[in-house]
Amino acid sequence: MRIRTVREDSPLGRFTYCEWQPENLRGLLDLVWWAEGCAAFPRKRIFPNGRLELLVNLGPPLRLVEGAGEEEMRRGWLCGVQSGPVVVEMTGARGYSNVLALRLRPAGVYALLAHPIHELSGFNLDLVDVVGRAGAELHERCAGARSVAERFQIAADWLFARVQAAPPMDPAIAWTAARIESSAGRSPIAALREQTGLSKTRLATAFREQVGVTPKHYARLFRFRRALGLLHDSPAPLAEVAFEAGYYDQPHMAGEFRALSGLSAGEYRAAPRFTQTKSVAEGR
Q: Rounded to the nearest 5°, which phi and psi values hold at 278?
């Protein structure tokens, strides 16, 4: 098991972050991650990334300050595809938190739940309410693990056991989603639809059921994701970032960035940001 580990001691706090990508879950799961430590800022602003997160809380409760759904995470959340920022507050002493997560692709959640996933979109729901006793068992087993590697394997095995016999995503929908992702939202949806042979209505309906949002909205999220990465990683002018991310112009990016993050691009660049997640520390 090749686990990537980063330890940070900075003005943002002191914590350890680990991630791992199980080979047998490629296509369903981006990675499993775990983070533990104390944050100098009580709140974190998290941005849409076109993925769904299954969170297992191993520390004090996390409180949902901005976003829709369960107000407090005690054992776990299943977070649907988001279309706006989510702000969470660490309630532990000195900002302590301890969280494990599976960053799921839509195909992974579609296989896990075996029914349309658009009802999850925009919500952060109690894990046990969504998957039943299995969610509580996952929490119990991860809490009892003696190492990060053991915890990661428990989570991966739990997911694999629940998706291996599940029906796959419609190939046309999977192909369309993959093209949107690989082009960072630049591929014209009409051209993709023509190649699938599906009608406009059929593609939009099936895509929403199996991915959580429409193809057009999915492309919007991946353009934003590209812009966020460029703003985080480089000092390039905003007009250049807008062009590289596939927006019509800088004003187009400005409107989209504000709508999806709650911040202007300039405010994002000026804010204290976490290296691994690109999220923003708030509340001090």
A: 65, 10
Question: Distance between CA atoms of 238 and 216, rounded to whole angstroms?
Answer: 23
> Residue 284 pLDDT > 80, yes or no?
no
Topology at the third CATH level for domain 4-163: Jelly Rolls (2.60.120)
Ordered by start, the domain boundaries in the chain are 4-163, 171-282
The model's confidence at residue 194, banded by pLDDT at 50, 70 and 90, is very high
Q: How far apart are the first and last CA of the chain?
A: 38
Give one DSSP letter per residue of 217-266, joined into a string.
Answer: HHHHHHHHHHHHHHHHH----HHHHHHHHT-SSHHHHHHHHHHHHSS-HH
Q: What is the pLDDT of residues 239-270, one digit of tens each?
A: 999 999 999 999 999 999 999 999 999 999 99
CATH class of residue range 171-282: mainly alpha
CA 89 to mean position of chain CA atoms: 17
Contact 131, 139 (CB under 8 A): no
Pairing of strands 68-69, 123-126: parallel
Name the pTM for this structure. 0.94
pLDDT at 38: 95
- Under DSSP, the state recorded for 279 is -
Q: Is the pLDDT of residue 109 over 80?
A: yes
Beta strands of the chain (E only): which ranges?
4-10, 13-20, 29-39, 43-46, 52-57, 62-66, 68-69, 72-73, 76-79, 86-90, 96-104, 123-126, 280-282
